[in-house]
Amino acid sequence: MITSPRPARPDDVARHYDELDRFYRELWGEHLHHGLFEGRRDAPQDAAARLVRRVAELARIGPGTEVCDVGCGYGATSRVLALQHGARVQGITLSRAQVDHARRSTPAALPPGASLRFHQGDWLANDFGDQAFDVVVAIECLTHMPDQRAFFREVARTLRPGGRLVMCAWLTSESPGSLARRFLLEPICLEGELPGMGSASETHDLMAEAGLEPLEYHDLSHRVRRTWSVSASRLLGAAWRDPEVRGLLRDPAFRSRVFARTVFRIWTAYRVGAMRYGLFLARRPLSCSARTVSV
Questions:
Q1: Which of 51-65, 127-141, 231-245 shows the lowest mean pLDDT across its residues?
Q2: Cys-Cys with 189: which of 126, 168, 194, 293 at CB 3.0–4.6 Å?
Q3: 287 phi and psi, to 5 degrees?
Q4: Distance between CA atoms of 248 and 5, rounded to whole angstroms?
Q5: What is the mean pLDDT of residues 276-294?
Q6: How far apart are CA 176 and CA 199, in angstroms?
Q7: C-alpha distances in angstroms, 271 versus 99, 211, 219, 241, 263?
Q8: Integer distance in angstroms from the first to the last C-alpha of the chain?
Q9: Taking residues 145-164, what's their average pLDDT?
Q10: What is the mean pLDDT of residues 141-170?
Q11: Residue 123's closest CA among 150, 102, 101?
């Protein structure tokens, strides 16, 4: 597990996204996650939507499915699951800017039986009841958790027996070298307010420890890494065109300006294989006891 030299608290993560609200929406759009690309001609927004479709398929989401979207960002995935699949979705995010945007963007009309609710809060201290959900979806929020064991315990607690977790996660390679750790992975964690980033095998172990049963793992690294070429190009374009952007990137009082370096570090980390991108499917076993998932 790669850990940040400076531990990130939930308040730090919320500040990061609130400060960079404009930049993230301009660089990434409402889907604040990687895209699943099929070819070089793919539009980034189409690739992002394709990733959400893959998640929904693995989760087997249909009309009336009770879903929690952990780290819901601007609510784009939640809206897809409610509008296109008829799910009853509750999204949770630390960021006030994100939850405000998600609520403003909630459509007035939803399919019969579908619903959308957004909460500003900490997944590790949530108010959801035991066995509240059929599905937990978590797209790229695991590395923001200061306690990844607690993340999976909360998943197991809030899932009904037989319920499914579908998670997309930033990962390290299984054995990153010392140079990758020092110049790529540790700075990425520090600059991105990521308390820690583990490998696929470490993540599987944490799932099993929490009482979840890992079912599938897909390494999507090569299909998502173009996201960072697109982001780097958009960042350079914004800095070239917009004096306000250039001013913020030079302003030492703007703590989050380091994200500009992080974009290029992540691009490099994918290219050299130090970072991976994983799609996980797990479930809470039908026989899983309350004691097992609450330890």
A1: 231-245
A2: 194
A3: -95, 5
A4: 25
A5: 75
A6: 9
A7: 33, 34, 15, 28, 13
A8: 22
A9: 97
A10: 97
A11: 150
Residue that the structure tokens 């793919």 belong to: 42
Helix (H, G, I), strand (E, B) or coil at 225: coil
The token pair that represents 103 in the structure block = 């609520």
Q: Select the more confidently predicted residue: 131 or 287.
A: 131
Instruction: Tell me which of 106-115, 199-208, 229-238, 285-294 is least confident.
Output: 285-294
Q: Which two tokens stand for residue 104?
A: 């403003």
CATH superfamily, region 2-294:
Vaccinia Virus protein VP39 (3.40.50.150)
Confidence of residue 246 (pLDDT cuts 50, 70, 90): low
Collapse the DSSP code of 238 into the 3-class scheme (helix H, G, I; strand E, B; otherwise coil) and give the result: helix
Query: What percent of the chain lies above the pLDDT cut of 90?
Result: 68
Domain ranges of the chain: 2-294
Phi, psi of 105 (to 5 degrees): -90, 0
